[in-house]
Specification:
binds iron/sulfur cluster, single chain, two-stranded antiparallel ribbon, 43% helix, 10 strands, 8-stranded mixed sheet, 2 domains
Length: 349
Protein backbone atom coordinates (compact mmCIF):
# COMPACT_ATOMS: atom_id res chain seq x y z
CA UNK A 1 0.00 0.00 0.00
CA UNK A 2 2.74 2.34 1.03
CA UNK A 3 4.47 1.49 -2.27
CA UNK A 4 1.53 2.86 -4.26
CA UNK A 5 1.59 6.07 -2.27
CA UNK A 6 5.33 6.41 -2.85
CA UNK A 7 4.85 5.53 -6.52
CA UNK A 8 2.28 8.30 -6.94
CA UNK A 9 4.64 10.79 -5.24
CA UNK A 10 7.56 9.63 -7.46
CA UNK A 11 5.45 9.79 -10.63
CA UNK A 12 4.37 13.28 -9.69
CA UNK A 13 7.99 14.35 -9.19
CA UNK A 14 9.13 12.59 -12.41
CA UNK A 15 6.49 14.36 -14.50
CA UNK A 16 7.57 17.68 -13.02
CA UNK A 17 11.25 16.88 -13.74
CA UNK A 18 10.44 15.79 -17.31
CA UNK A 19 8.60 19.02 -17.86
CA UNK A 20 11.51 21.03 -16.47
CA UNK A 21 14.31 19.30 -18.42
CA UNK A 22 12.58 18.80 -21.79
CA UNK A 23 10.51 21.98 -21.69
CA UNK A 24 7.57 19.82 -22.83
CA UNK A 25 4.47 21.47 -21.57
CA UNK A 26 2.52 19.02 -19.42
CA UNK A 27 -0.59 20.72 -18.12
CA UNK A 28 -0.61 21.05 -14.34
CA UNK A 29 -4.14 19.66 -14.13
CA UNK A 30 -2.96 16.45 -15.91
CA UNK A 31 -0.11 15.95 -13.43
CA UNK A 32 -2.47 16.56 -10.49
CA UNK A 33 -5.13 14.30 -12.00
CA UNK A 34 -2.66 11.39 -12.22
CA UNK A 35 -1.44 12.05 -8.70
CA UNK A 36 -4.91 12.14 -7.13
CA UNK A 37 -6.18 9.21 -9.20
CA UNK A 38 -3.38 6.95 -7.98
CA UNK A 39 -3.96 8.07 -4.41
CA UNK A 40 -7.70 7.41 -4.72
CA UNK A 41 -7.02 3.93 -6.16
CA UNK A 42 -4.64 3.29 -3.27
CA UNK A 43 -7.26 4.22 -0.71
CA UNK A 44 -9.98 2.14 -2.38
CA UNK A 45 -7.62 -0.83 -2.55
CA UNK A 46 -6.65 -0.41 1.09
CA UNK A 47 -10.30 -0.23 2.15
CA UNK A 48 -11.09 -3.36 0.11
CA UNK A 49 -8.15 -5.30 1.55
CA UNK A 50 -9.08 -4.24 5.09
CA UNK A 51 -12.71 -5.22 4.53
CA UNK A 52 -11.73 -8.55 2.98
CA UNK A 53 -9.42 -9.38 5.83
CA UNK A 54 -11.94 -8.44 8.54
CA UNK A 55 -14.76 -10.13 6.62
CA UNK A 56 -12.76 -13.33 6.32
CA UNK A 57 -11.97 -13.16 10.06
CA UNK A 58 -15.69 -12.72 10.77
CA UNK A 59 -16.65 -15.61 8.50
CA UNK A 60 -14.11 -17.97 10.03
CA UNK A 61 -14.97 -17.12 13.63
CA UNK A 62 -18.73 -16.68 13.36
CA UNK A 63 -19.67 -19.24 10.70
CA UNK A 64 -16.93 -21.84 11.01
CA UNK A 65 -16.60 -21.33 14.79
CA UNK A 66 -12.80 -21.06 14.62
CA UNK A 67 -11.43 -19.42 17.74
CA UNK A 68 -8.76 -17.20 16.20
CA UNK A 69 -7.16 -14.27 18.01
CA UNK A 70 -8.08 -10.92 16.52
CA UNK A 71 -5.55 -8.84 18.40
CA UNK A 72 -2.15 -9.58 19.93
CA UNK A 73 -0.82 -7.73 22.93
CA UNK A 74 2.92 -8.07 22.27
CA UNK A 75 5.26 -7.29 25.19
CA UNK A 76 8.64 -6.90 23.55
CA UNK A 77 10.53 -5.82 26.70
CA UNK A 78 10.01 -5.28 30.42
CA UNK A 79 12.71 -2.58 30.45
CA UNK A 80 11.40 0.90 31.03
CA UNK A 81 12.80 4.36 31.71
CA UNK A 82 9.99 5.10 34.21
CA UNK A 83 8.96 3.55 37.53
CA UNK A 84 5.19 3.94 37.51
CA UNK A 85 3.52 3.07 40.81
CA UNK A 86 0.72 0.98 39.31
CA UNK A 87 2.81 -1.04 36.85
CA UNK A 88 4.10 -4.53 37.68
CA UNK A 89 6.26 -4.93 34.56
CA UNK A 90 9.29 -2.66 35.05
CA UNK A 91 9.86 -4.65 38.27
CA UNK A 92 10.60 -7.68 36.09
CA UNK A 93 13.32 -6.02 33.99
CA UNK A 94 16.11 -8.02 35.69
CA UNK A 95 14.48 -11.39 35.06
CA UNK A 96 16.00 -13.70 32.45
CA UNK A 97 14.10 -13.23 29.18
CA UNK A 98 13.08 -9.66 30.04
CA UNK A 99 13.86 -8.50 26.49
CA UNK A 100 13.11 -10.26 23.22
CA UNK A 101 15.75 -10.76 20.54
CA UNK A 102 15.14 -9.74 16.92
CA UNK A 103 15.13 -13.39 15.85
CA UNK A 104 12.65 -14.35 18.57
CA UNK A 105 10.43 -11.43 17.60
CA UNK A 106 10.38 -12.55 13.96
CA UNK A 107 9.48 -16.11 15.00
CA UNK A 108 6.66 -14.93 17.28
CA UNK A 109 5.29 -12.61 14.58
CA UNK A 110 5.23 -15.57 12.16
CA UNK A 111 3.40 -17.70 14.73
CA UNK A 112 0.83 -14.95 15.24
CA UNK A 113 0.37 -14.69 11.49
CA UNK A 114 -0.19 -18.45 11.26
CA UNK A 115 -2.77 -18.23 14.05
CA UNK A 116 -4.72 -15.78 11.86
CA UNK A 117 -4.21 -12.76 14.12
CA UNK A 118 -5.05 -9.46 12.34
CA UNK A 119 -3.82 -6.72 14.68
CA UNK A 120 -0.60 -6.46 16.72
CA UNK A 121 -0.13 -3.91 19.49
CA UNK A 122 3.39 -3.63 20.91
CA UNK A 123 3.75 -2.78 24.58
CA UNK A 124 6.15 -3.26 27.47
CA UNK A 125 7.91 -2.02 29.61
CA UNK A 126 8.60 0.76 27.18
CA UNK A 127 8.53 -0.76 23.67
CA UNK A 128 10.14 2.26 21.97
CA UNK A 129 13.32 1.57 23.97
CA UNK A 130 13.66 -1.84 22.41
CA UNK A 131 16.80 -2.59 20.38
CA UNK A 132 18.68 -5.75 19.44
CA UNK A 133 21.99 -5.41 17.57
CA UNK A 134 21.35 -3.14 14.60
CA UNK A 135 17.59 -3.41 14.96
CA UNK A 136 15.35 -0.99 16.78
CA UNK A 137 11.63 -0.66 17.37
CA UNK A 138 11.03 0.94 13.96
CA UNK A 139 12.45 -2.16 12.24
CA UNK A 140 10.11 -4.33 14.27
CA UNK A 141 7.10 -2.16 13.44
CA UNK A 142 7.99 -2.08 9.71
CA UNK A 143 8.30 -5.86 9.66
CA UNK A 144 5.00 -6.35 11.49
CA UNK A 145 3.24 -4.02 9.05
CA UNK A 146 4.12 -6.35 6.19
CA UNK A 147 2.35 -9.19 8.02
CA UNK A 148 -0.70 -7.75 9.78
CA UNK A 149 -3.67 -5.59 8.95
CA UNK A 150 -2.87 -3.00 11.61
CA UNK A 151 0.11 -2.47 13.91
CA UNK A 152 0.03 -0.25 16.97
CA UNK A 153 2.12 0.58 20.00
CA UNK A 154 1.40 1.76 23.53
CA UNK A 155 4.10 4.03 24.92
CA UNK A 156 4.75 6.26 27.94
CA UNK A 157 5.42 9.10 25.50
CA UNK A 158 8.88 10.04 26.80
CA UNK A 159 10.67 9.10 23.57
CA UNK A 160 10.05 10.50 20.07
CA UNK A 161 6.71 9.21 18.77
CA UNK A 162 7.76 9.26 15.12
CA UNK A 163 7.66 5.50 14.64
CA UNK A 164 6.15 3.66 11.66
CA UNK A 165 3.07 2.16 13.33
CA UNK A 166 -0.48 2.60 12.06
CA UNK A 167 -1.68 3.58 15.51
CA UNK A 168 -0.02 4.86 18.65
CA UNK A 169 -1.36 5.17 22.19
CA UNK A 170 0.29 7.43 24.77
CA UNK A 171 -0.57 6.44 28.34
CA UNK A 172 -1.66 9.47 30.35
CA UNK A 173 -3.17 8.68 33.74
CA UNK A 174 -4.54 12.01 34.85
CA UNK A 175 -3.81 15.69 34.41
CA UNK A 176 -0.27 16.95 35.01
CA UNK A 177 0.08 16.64 38.81
CA UNK A 178 -1.75 13.35 39.18
CA UNK A 179 0.01 11.81 36.19
CA UNK A 180 3.40 12.94 37.53
CA UNK A 181 2.69 11.40 40.94
CA UNK A 182 1.94 7.98 39.52
CA UNK A 183 4.01 7.98 36.34
CA UNK A 184 7.42 9.23 37.38
CA UNK A 185 7.11 12.93 36.44
CA UNK A 186 6.64 12.35 32.72
CA UNK A 187 3.60 14.47 31.78
CA UNK A 188 5.42 17.43 30.18
CA UNK A 189 7.73 15.19 28.13
CA UNK A 190 4.79 13.14 26.88
CA UNK A 191 2.77 16.21 25.93
CA UNK A 192 5.76 17.78 24.19
CA UNK A 193 6.31 14.64 22.12
CA UNK A 194 2.62 14.55 21.20
CA UNK A 195 2.73 18.17 20.07
CA UNK A 196 5.86 17.75 17.96
CA UNK A 197 5.05 14.34 16.49
CA UNK A 198 4.34 13.74 12.82
CA UNK A 199 2.56 10.45 13.62
CA UNK A 200 -0.85 10.49 11.94
CA UNK A 201 -2.83 8.49 14.49
CA UNK A 202 -2.15 9.28 18.16
CA UNK A 203 -4.60 8.23 20.85
CA UNK A 204 -4.44 8.68 24.61
CA UNK A 205 -4.86 5.65 26.84
CA UNK A 206 -6.15 6.31 30.35
CA UNK A 207 -6.14 3.57 33.00
CA UNK A 208 -8.69 4.69 35.55
CA UNK A 209 -7.74 4.00 39.15
CA UNK A 210 -8.71 5.06 42.66
CA UNK A 211 -6.36 8.07 42.58
CA UNK A 212 -7.04 9.51 39.13
CA UNK A 213 -10.80 9.02 38.87
CA UNK A 214 -11.52 12.74 39.39
CA UNK A 215 -8.98 13.79 36.76
CA UNK A 216 -10.87 12.39 33.76
CA UNK A 217 -12.66 15.67 32.84
CA UNK A 218 -9.61 17.75 33.82
CA UNK A 219 -7.31 15.90 31.42
CA UNK A 220 -9.97 15.97 28.70
CA UNK A 221 -10.06 19.77 29.07
CA UNK A 222 -6.28 20.00 28.73
CA UNK A 223 -6.19 17.75 25.66
CA UNK A 224 -9.28 19.01 23.85
CA UNK A 225 -7.33 21.59 21.86
CA UNK A 226 -4.43 19.29 20.92
CA UNK A 227 -4.63 18.87 17.16
CA UNK A 228 -2.41 15.77 17.16
CA UNK A 229 -4.71 13.72 19.39
CA UNK A 230 -7.38 11.68 17.61
CA UNK A 231 -9.17 10.45 20.71
CA UNK A 232 -8.96 8.67 24.03
CA UNK A 233 -9.55 5.10 25.20
CA UNK A 234 -10.18 4.06 28.79
CA UNK A 235 -9.59 0.90 30.74
CA UNK A 236 -9.82 0.14 34.45
CA UNK A 237 -6.96 -0.68 36.78
CA UNK A 238 -6.54 -4.37 37.54
CA UNK A 239 -4.65 -5.41 40.69
CA UNK A 240 -1.90 -7.88 39.74
CA UNK A 241 -0.61 -7.90 43.33
CA UNK A 242 3.01 -8.11 42.17
CA UNK A 243 4.52 -5.18 44.01
CA UNK A 244 2.56 -2.39 42.33
CA UNK A 245 0.18 -0.18 44.34
CA UNK A 246 -3.34 -1.55 44.61
CA UNK A 247 -5.30 1.21 42.92
CA UNK A 248 -8.37 -0.83 41.94
CA UNK A 249 -11.67 1.01 41.96
CA UNK A 250 -14.37 0.02 44.43
CA UNK A 251 -17.72 -0.86 42.80
CA UNK A 252 -19.26 2.58 43.44
CA UNK A 253 -16.12 4.31 42.09
CA UNK A 254 -16.18 2.15 39.00
CA UNK A 255 -19.76 3.13 38.31
CA UNK A 256 -18.87 6.79 38.91
CA UNK A 257 -15.94 6.49 36.46
CA UNK A 258 -18.11 4.96 33.76
CA UNK A 259 -20.77 7.68 34.20
CA UNK A 260 -18.04 10.37 33.93
CA UNK A 261 -16.61 8.79 30.76
CA UNK A 262 -20.06 8.48 29.20
CA UNK A 263 -20.72 12.14 29.97
CA UNK A 264 -17.41 13.09 28.36
CA UNK A 265 -18.30 10.97 25.34
CA UNK A 266 -21.64 12.74 24.97
CA UNK A 267 -20.01 16.15 25.33
CA UNK A 268 -17.84 15.58 22.25
CA UNK A 269 -15.04 17.58 23.93
CA UNK A 270 -12.52 14.84 23.20
CA UNK A 271 -13.50 11.76 21.15
CA UNK A 272 -13.99 8.81 23.52
CA UNK A 273 -13.43 5.72 21.43
CA UNK A 274 -14.80 3.04 23.78
CA UNK A 275 -18.37 2.18 22.84
CA UNK A 276 -21.10 3.21 25.30
CA UNK A 277 -22.29 -0.41 25.29
CA UNK A 278 -18.97 -1.84 26.48
CA UNK A 279 -18.48 0.94 29.04
CA UNK A 280 -21.90 0.30 30.60
CA UNK A 281 -21.17 -3.41 30.78
CA UNK A 282 -17.86 -2.74 32.52
CA UNK A 283 -19.69 -1.39 35.61
CA UNK A 284 -20.49 -4.87 36.85
CA UNK A 285 -18.67 -6.83 34.16
CA UNK A 286 -21.89 -8.10 32.66
CA UNK A 287 -20.37 -9.06 29.30
CA UNK A 288 -19.61 -12.44 27.89
CA UNK A 289 -15.85 -12.72 27.62
CA UNK A 290 -14.51 -14.20 24.39
CA UNK A 291 -10.96 -14.21 25.68
CA UNK A 292 -9.76 -16.25 22.67
CA UNK A 293 -9.94 -13.01 20.64
CA UNK A 294 -6.71 -12.03 22.38
CA UNK A 295 -3.18 -13.38 21.89
CA UNK A 296 -0.52 -12.49 24.42
CA UNK A 297 3.23 -12.38 23.98
CA UNK A 298 5.82 -11.97 26.73
CA UNK A 299 9.42 -10.78 26.20
CA UNK A 300 10.77 -14.31 26.76
CA UNK A 301 8.99 -15.34 23.55
CA UNK A 302 6.09 -17.18 25.18
CA UNK A 303 2.80 -16.85 23.35
CA UNK A 304 -0.67 -17.87 24.43
CA UNK A 305 -4.22 -17.10 23.47
CA UNK A 306 -6.88 -16.23 26.01
CA UNK A 307 -6.98 -14.06 29.06
CA UNK A 308 -4.23 -11.42 29.39
CA UNK A 309 -3.80 -12.52 33.02
CA UNK A 310 -2.78 -16.13 32.39
CA UNK A 311 0.86 -16.52 33.50
CA UNK A 312 0.72 -12.95 34.84
CA UNK A 313 -1.67 -12.91 37.79
CA UNK A 314 -4.78 -14.36 39.35
CA UNK A 315 -7.76 -14.31 36.98
CA UNK A 316 -10.68 -12.60 38.73
CA UNK A 317 -13.22 -11.75 36.04
CA UNK A 318 -15.32 -9.76 38.51
CA UNK A 319 -12.48 -7.19 38.68
CA UNK A 320 -11.63 -7.26 34.98
CA UNK A 321 -10.83 -3.86 33.54
CA UNK A 322 -9.65 -4.91 30.07
CA UNK A 323 -11.93 -2.86 27.86
CA UNK A 324 -10.27 -4.01 24.59
CA UNK A 325 -11.36 -7.60 25.36
CA UNK A 326 -14.84 -6.42 26.29
CA UNK A 327 -15.04 -4.44 23.05
CA UNK A 328 -13.78 -7.34 20.90
CA UNK A 329 -16.10 -9.77 22.70
CA UNK A 330 -19.12 -7.56 22.04
CA UNK A 331 -18.05 -7.01 18.42
CA UNK A 332 -17.88 -10.80 17.94
CA UNK A 333 -21.44 -10.84 19.29
CA UNK A 334 -22.20 -8.41 16.42
CA UNK A 335 -23.05 -5.54 18.73
CA UNK A 336 -23.31 -2.48 16.43
CA UNK A 337 -21.74 -0.03 18.93
CA UNK A 338 -18.70 -2.24 19.46
CA UNK A 339 -18.33 -2.86 15.72
CA UNK A 340 -18.41 0.88 15.07
CA UNK A 341 -15.89 1.51 17.87
CA UNK A 342 -13.52 -1.05 16.30
CA UNK A 343 -13.89 0.57 12.90
CA UNK A 344 -13.33 4.03 14.34
CA UNK A 345 -10.20 3.03 16.26
CA UNK A 346 -8.49 0.81 13.73
CA UNK A 347 -9.72 1.92 10.31
CA UNK A 348 -10.45 5.63 10.56
CA UNK A 349 -7.33 6.78 8.69
S1 LIG B 1 -10.21 -11.39 33.51
FE1 LIG B 1 -11.28 -10.30 31.87
S2 LIG B 1 -10.23 -10.90 29.99
FE2 LIG B 1 -9.65 -12.37 31.58
S3 LIG B 1 -11.09 -14.07 31.29
FE3 LIG B 1 -11.92 -12.68 32.88
S4 LIG B 1 -13.30 -11.28 31.78
FE4 LIG B 1 -11.96 -12.27 30.24
Amino acid sequence: MMCLFIASEKLHQSLKALQYHTRICIPEFFVSWIYYTIQAITRIRETMLNSTSILSYGLQTLLLRRQMPLLASFKVTYHCNLRCTGCPYHRRAREPGAKMSWQQALEVLSRLERLGCRIVIFEGGEPLLWTDGNHDFSDLAEKARTMFLKVGVTTNGTISLDVPTDLLWVSLDGARDQHNRSRDISFDRALQHIKSSTHRCIYIHYTVNRENIDDIPVLAGVLASEANIRGITFQFFYPYNQGELDLALRPAEREQAVRTILKLKRSGKLPVLNSSASLKRMIKNTWRCRSWTLANVDPDGSLWTGCYLQQRGEIRCRHCGFTPVAEASLALGLHPGALLAGRRIFFAN
